[in-house]
Amino acid sequence: EVQLVESGGGLVQPGGSLRISCAASGFLFGSYAMGWVRQAPGKGLEWVLRISSGGGTTYYTDSAKGRFTISRDNAKNTLYLQMNSLKIEDTAVYYCATDQGNRVPLKSQGYWGQGTQVTVSS
User: What is the DSSP string of 70-120?
Assistant: First the structure.
């Protein structure tokens, strides 16, 4: 059974930092490019960052460049997202998923986790 389980979300003040994780199982994690997708209230799905299977290449988006960092530990089957200098507009549900390229992400494609809520508020 394929599973992607996000954790580490929560409430943080503007300017703060948060690190969320995604534990993968049931498939060859180290053979898949991965990414983080978010959905803000009332908005659609948006890629945040993507990373190659070996972790050597990252694909940035304007929404997170310079503030967020994606990484992975294939020995632990885990994907990470380090978020710094958080803004109110970063509030969203954050999902980990297998990479779909730079098209609008579709939940009908690939593997997805259940999501973890990140709320940035004072």
Answer: EEEEGGGTEEEEEE-S--GGG-EEEEEEE-BTBSPP-TTSS-B---EEEEE
DSSP letter at 27 equals S
Q: Which residues contact 115 (CB under 8 A, 6 or more apart)?
A: 6, 39, 93, 94, 95
Q: What are the angstrom distances between the C-alpha of 9 and each of 1, 55, 106?
A: 24, 23, 22
**Residue 88, phi then psi, degrees to nearest 5:** -55, -40
pLDDT in tens, 50-91: 999 999 999 988 878 899 999 999 999 999 999 999 999 999
What are the structure tokens assigned to 19, written together? 């690190």
